[in-house]
Amino acid sequence: MNQIYMKNTDNFIFWDIILAEYIFSDNSNSKLRPVLVLFKEADDYTVLKITSQWQNIDNFTIVLEPNNENKIKITSYLKVKKINSFHEKLFKEKKIWNISNKQKEILKSKLSNLFNNL
What we know:
- The protein is mainly beta.
- It has a single domain, classed as SH3 type barrels.
- The chain has one helix and six strands, in the order E-E-E-E-E-E-H.
- A six-stranded antiparallel beta sheet has the order 4-5-3-2-1-6.
- It is globular and about 30 Å long.
């Protein structure tokens, strides 16, 4: 697995979309992919997965369409149930964009629903 070392993690905040070396759940491999930052604790970030693969779409998926405000090249999917924690060394030093205010409200609602339904 190639690690991407980041020089300054203080620039990343809640709602930022950044690139991370995303490790597959079976630890078989990794892939550089965008993730949404939820919060930071010490050297770890809690993030949500973003993918361009249209699979397992459910009520906890937010569709991210390309537009003039973001740098999305193709329709992507924010997977609210794919919550992960990464060490800051797995992040590339690059903020891609932020989600819109409307998407933030949708995400807040979906996170609330997810945890209220446990």
